Amino acid sequence: MAARLLGEPLVLFRDEENRPRCLADRCPHKNAKLSVGRVRQGKMECFYHGWQFDSRNGKVDCIPFLLPGRSIPPQAQTKSYPCVEKYHLIWVWPGESQADESLIPWYPEFSDEKANFWGRSNECPVDASLWLENLMDLAHTPFAHDGQFASREQGRPLKYHTKATKGGLVAETEFFGAPESDPKQSTEWVAPITSIVSVKFPGGTWLRLHFYSVPMAPGACRFIMTLYRDWGYLLQKAMDAAEWFPPLRAMVAQMDMTVPFQDMISMTGQARNMKEGCPPLSVPIQCDEMAVHFRRWWGKAFTRDVWWKGWNGKMDMEDMTESALQACFGADACGQYERDITFAANSGGSRNCRPYVDRWATTHYKRSPFESSWWSTFALVLSAGLAGAAFTALSRR
């Protein structure tokens, strides 16, 4: 798959032993994208001329049209990046120093055998800092997500009890006038790009969401969501079963993305106004305390171009907007993305996400999951039968 990290285009794939590998998404021959090629016997093969790359070091070890007796040029090599699969994620080390796997953060729920896991990721034309700030802002949930897991009637005074930690900030939330039976929530930010939302329910059950706002390019990020919970066993099994049926997998994925769509309505608007000179926060109030601390840290820690190797901060504003959109949806998406996600989020239901999904499918050369087929019907009927059989078997126990 194609990816982008800190401005660098990457290609991720698995070798013959199913280990994740990461190379720069550039063939040294004519600078074609390796991500449109294919993997043969664990090696990445360029789509353009069939050059093959050793997955361990990025060196070319096969050129089909090389004359007999000629050796492969020593400069025929693309950069390789250390990567490892851990805690359901692929971790890539982009630095020049030696990669240290022990730096990957660990939390108890990662190793809890009773915890059910779920995860999704999506490329967004939104700066990573906006996603991080959005996840510190629980006051938006009754309004932006009205009808999902909150309602407008739940909007009430909110106070954050914020304190600094070794790696960032943590805040306990207090909703004034909320019933004692309401779940207790806390939000944690671990610098630079990790957000954790913890929910404790009255019965003692818990839920923890880990969010990673991975910077891709100026104005674009990959938003990764992972969830751990100690309840919902049957629900988890149903979701796991859906992963085996492409039509169901696509339907579940689109339903899962409804809430992020709603967030992106606000954030794409914020991004536009910030490009015109507006600050991230113009009139902060008490419940914005965590976001204010974060913005102060972000402003001190990073200059405009610190993330982006090769970007001097002088790119034209209109060009920067287009490049962020193209990183996710291609040149034809510019100006249309905001309208698509607004329609998708406001309409409700997975099928109303069609404009967004069709655009993604077109730019990624994949069939839209909304296209009808006999396989879709068969998968739905079969999955319903399997779910019924599983429920009957569990009931008898």
From TrEMBL:
InterPro entries, per database record: Cholesterol_7-desaturase (IPR050584), Rieske_2Fe-2S (IPR017941), Rieske_2Fe-2S_sf (IPR036922), VanA_C_cat (IPR044043)
MF term (GO), any: oxidoreductase activity
Pfam family for this entry, one: Rieske
Sorted UniProt keywords: 2Fe-2S, Iron, Iron-sulfur, Membrane, Metal-binding, Oxidoreductase, Transmembrane, Transmembrane helix
Subcellular location per the Swiss-Prot or TrEMBL entry: Membrane
Membrane-crossing segments per the record: 374-394
Domain Rieske: 1-92
Coiled coil: none
PANTHER family in the cross-refs: CHOLESTEROL 7-DESATURASE NVD, IRON-SULFUR DOMAIN CONTAINING PROTEIN
Protein name: Rieske domain-containing protein
Annotated source species: Effrenium voratum
Source organism phylogeny: Eukaryota, Sar, Alveolata, Dinophyceae, Suessiales
